[in-house]
């Protein structure tokens, strides 16, 4: 891809933190009236993209979404609360963490539904990768997430290399 362009800025986590609340409607649900997993992933992608957009102030595309466990069912009429923050920026990519809760609208109780890490890549209007501002962690939690994001990046890279080799070995891609 094209040469990465210079952008020396540093941004705090707080400056791009985002939150979205959705009421779950029948169109979001399966035949049991539970929120569809794919719809939940759509909301996670959107909430993650908003934080990535605020951090980068340019276009972002989703490069990867890590493993997700669906911990609690969410029913029609429930409120879904999603919060996202940028854990760390690298060159043109950044990792966002998204955490999701369901709120019972009658009682106000919150239960954890799912968490996910996503990687977005910053691009300009022609799809050319853009150099990102770095993240400045300010709290112990932000520092822990910042450090862990590097380990997850290394793990993703080694897994991607392993899958690529597997595709070559099975003849699914050209050598
Ligand atoms: C994501 C995409 C831009 C990466 O392009 P690419 O040519 O593979 O780019 P590179 O290999 O040069 O990698 C660019 C960055 O993306 C990261 N990246 C690429 N693929 C990745 C993956 N599968 N998981 C995590 N990070 C990834 C690289 O680590 C690199 O990060 P860095 O710049 O911070 O070091 C390209 O694969 C793409 O356009 N994919 C489709 C995106 C899309 O349509 N998403 C859904 C709709 S928004």
From TrEMBL:
Region of interest (Disordered), residue spans: 130-175
Keywords (A to Z) from UniProt: Hydrolase
One of the protein's GO biological processes: acyl-CoA metabolic process
UniProt-listed Enzyme Commission number(s): 3.1.2.20
GO molecular function: long-chain fatty acyl-CoA hydrolase activity
Top EC class of this enzyme: hydrolase
Biased composition (Basic and acidic residues): 141-175
Domain HotDog ACOT-type: 14-126
Record-linked PROSITE patterns: HOTDOG_ACOT
UniProt cross-references to CDD domains, sorted A to Z: BFIT_BACH
Gene Ontology cellular component terms for the protein in this record: cytosol
PANTHER family: ACYL COENZYME A THIOESTER HYDROLASE, PROTEIN VDLD
The family this protein is said to belong to: Belongs to the acyl coenzyme A hydrolase family.
Full protein name: Acyl-CoA thioesterase
């Amino acid at each position: 891809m094209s040469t990465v362009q210079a952008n020396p800025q540093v941004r705090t986590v707080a400056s791009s933190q985002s939150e979205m609340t959705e009421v779950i409607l029948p169109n979001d649900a399966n035949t049991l009236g539970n929120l569809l997993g794919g719809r939940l992933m759509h909301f996670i992608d959107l909430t993650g993209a908003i934080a990535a957009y605020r951090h980068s102030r340019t276009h972002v595309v989703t490069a990867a979404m890590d493993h997700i466990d669906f911990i609690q069912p969410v029913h029609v009429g429930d409120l879904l609360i999603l919060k996202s923050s940028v854990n760390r920026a690298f060159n043109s990519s950044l990792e966002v963490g998204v955490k999701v809760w369901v709120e019972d609208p009658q009682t106000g109780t919150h239960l954890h539904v799912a968490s996910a890490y996503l990687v977005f890549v910053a691009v300009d209007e022609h799809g050319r990768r853009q150099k990102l501002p770095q993240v400045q962690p300010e709290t112990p939690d932000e520092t822990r997430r910042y450090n862990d994001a590097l380990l997850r990046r290394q793990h993703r890279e080694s897994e991607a290399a392993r899958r690529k080799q597997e595709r070559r070995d099975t003849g699914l891609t050209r050598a």
